[in-house]
């Protein structure tokens, strides 16, 4: 009789590298593990001890250190350790200690070796473990691996099964109590002649059941209520009998195709003909979008500020994980901005719940890098409120000030520092009705003054976060309408965009400046990405682009004749490259437990990177020269209005 | 008891006080006596394997977690429907050595217990009777110290089954993880009541939660045996030295 431990098998089947295994291989693993409990603080693997097992964390958390005792990594439920030592000389190089009470599964070395030989995905995972170890959680690495992820990994719970004669009322109650959207219908015993037909299965006690059908919540609606049946009708009369199922070792991709081909949302998953769960279309979607949406989802589930503050620790982790997985600058920027906006949105919801509904409608917008989707880990918060024109400062402002304070204090508590220039909704100037905002923009554009524009450039990158979007869109439309027609404004913006220049390049351990001076660090934001953003913004305003991200602005510009042939591509390359160096630099700092800043020391840059950076700075430098020439300050005659 | 290490004296006394009146160190003698005058060969072999000197440190004792699913709680009226056995040591639990059998109960199943452990009439009708597997079961328990969660079920049901099928009682020393939990959590009950707190739950899964052990699907005899083995490892890691004498823990 089959005595496999389902608990063990099911858990391991959810995590890499075991999720890559076939059902039979997974059975062998689940049958061979040994279990050990380690109290928080106790040693699991000591330095130089012999190691003959691959270790899998069933629950708890462990800390991996280097030989010298410095922290190397932290691992949690579902992670493995010891693989690299097993493959080298079976001596522990990285000692491991339990950080929390941990239950460890030990997989014997012989089986580990056998699996490496049999399964390429398994081998790839454990052999590249050195790199993978850096990402604390492996889950997000498989976003685009729908093709290879096995469907059982997405199963979260056992199926709810009912007998064929159960009345529908009872079925509906089970659905409610178990919080599921479908149940499987089984027939006990049945005739044993047909034991081998595909819908018969045996549970671990040897009973043969027949999987008869499935009933979904939609069936309750369309086949019971709509047909005027009452709750006593047996489920067998209502269920769908032509079952489409998938085997647990099929890929998520195959499962998805099966659902699409048959136009169904629920797919029972079988292991050795025994139903082990039901896959819902939503499970696949969640899996597909996991890395970008997981954290955001969690943010929206937080009932209070304390929960949000706790989550802010995950933001840095999400950032380093993205970088580790080789995400490009655009992806990192978008994701970090989305996370920041979600924090703001959730805080506004919480604020409204606390202070009551807003007295007049309003819109909340973010500005600067968050609006451009080019955020790194924790950018300064820049935001503003655009209120409905029925706003009366006497009556309503106290509410909006309180709300703005709630949000900005909340963001600060979550790690987004307050804006040093006070561009926040807490500032009365930036908490105004739409008509006032329109006046602001008119003033900035039609009567430009380089000095004042210097501080308001940030308002030309704006993005809607909460409340009605139409007010923000009205402002964007106003900018698109006015900016291209005002050469003086463009000239002033262009002049400001030239305030910050790139260095010539990096030389050995120094920054080579144009005047021959040598500095030992460079601020990649001030001297690289920021001037590029400024420069692209001017072109974008000139051609009436309403996009706010730099790359999308470049696309808009490419459709015009504004820039000479090829310049657009070079600018994009330069921007992506400098952003990426900056992001990687910050991720590295975070991993080493330092503050993430923008100051890059050339000593830490490889010679290849140095070369590319030099090229990127050169592109920026040329583009700045062109900007000066393209948007000259109009002669006084141009002031006529 | 006098030759116990000093620091354990207090502990030992407290332990005795808590469950005064229970059999403690007569176990080796009792098992030896049963070995000599036992009618059934299977029982005799089991008793022949003996037990441990009460002073043996826990870390040296081979253990075995035992769990029954039953048709009810009364050994006089209800019977065993499945057996889960998981040998282990203080360090490791080798899952491969797990043993699981469904057995046919002496009396009919009530439908409520079917829901409870998902064993249905037809499954049980084909299963062997308990006396057909008792040899296998005793073989796996022999030479190891049995660990259960809640002594009454396993001890009394096994005893009742042995009396019924073999005509002789079957008693042996046990470690009860529930009693250990009770000792740790229930003792200052008056104090907890004073502060308006509900006493901690001593059931298997709530107890496991206190040690950060994962939630398992309950009511499968082998899974519960594994769960009990893990719980004892956790209790030992938290509350006892590895050289705690086995006599301080068994019943």
From TrEMBL, chain A:
<feature type="domain" description="Cyclic nucleotide-binding">
    <location>
        <begin position="17"/>
        <end position="121"/>
    </location>
</feature>
<dbReference type="InterPro" id="IPR000595">
    <property type="entry name" value="cNMP-bd_dom"/>
</dbReference>
<dbReference type="InterPro" id="IPR014710">
    <property type="entry name" value="RmlC-like_jellyroll"/>
</dbReference>
<protein>
    <submittedName>
        <fullName>Nucleotidyltransferase substrate binding domain-containing protein</fullName>
    </submittedName>
</protein>
<dbReference type="Pfam" id="PF10335">
    <property type="entry name" value="DUF294_C"/>
</dbReference>
<dbReference type="InterPro" id="IPR046342">
    <property type="entry name" value="CBS_dom_sf"/>
</dbReference>
<dbReference type="InterPro" id="IPR018821">
    <property type="entry name" value="DUF294_put_nucleoTrafse_sb-bd"/>
</dbReference>
<dbReference type="InterPro" id="IPR051257">
    <property type="entry name" value="Diverse_CBS-Domain"/>
</dbReference>
<dbReference type="InterPro" id="IPR018490">
    <property type="entry name" value="cNMP-bd_dom_sf"/>
</dbReference>
<dbReference type="Pfam" id="PF03445">
    <property type="entry name" value="DUF294"/>
</dbReference>
<feature type="domain" description="CBS">
    <location>
        <begin position="155"/>
        <end position="231"/>
    </location>
</feature>
<dbReference type="Pfam" id="PF00571">
    <property type="entry name" value="CBS"/>
</dbReference>
<dbReference type="InterPro" id="IPR005105">
    <property type="entry name" value="GlnD_Uridyltrans_N"/>
</dbReference>
<dbReference type="Pfam" id="PF00027">
    <property type="entry name" value="cNMP_binding"/>
</dbReference>
<dbReference type="InterPro" id="IPR000644">
    <property type="entry name" value="CBS_dom"/>
</dbReference>
<feature type="domain" description="CBS">
    <location>
        <begin position="239"/>
        <end position="295"/>
    </location>
</feature>
<keyword id="KW-0129">CBS domain</keyword>
TrEMBL record, chain B:
<keyword id="KW-0378">Hydrolase</keyword>
<keyword id="KW-0540">Nuclease</keyword>
<keyword id="KW-0269">Exonuclease</keyword>
<feature type="domain" description="Exonuclease">
    <location>
        <begin position="62"/>
        <end position="241"/>
    </location>
</feature>
<dbReference type="InterPro" id="IPR036397">
    <property type="entry name" value="RNaseH_sf"/>
</dbReference>
<dbReference type="InterPro" id="IPR012337">
    <property type="entry name" value="RNaseH-like_sf"/>
</dbReference>
<dbReference type="GO" id="GO:0004527">
    <property type="term" value="F:exonuclease activity"/>
</dbReference>
<dbReference type="Pfam" id="PF00929">
    <property type="entry name" value="RNase_T"/>
</dbReference>
<dbReference type="InterPro" id="IPR013520">
    <property type="entry name" value="Ribonucl_H"/>
</dbReference>
<protein>
    <submittedName>
        <fullName>3'-5' exonuclease</fullName>
    </submittedName>
</protein>
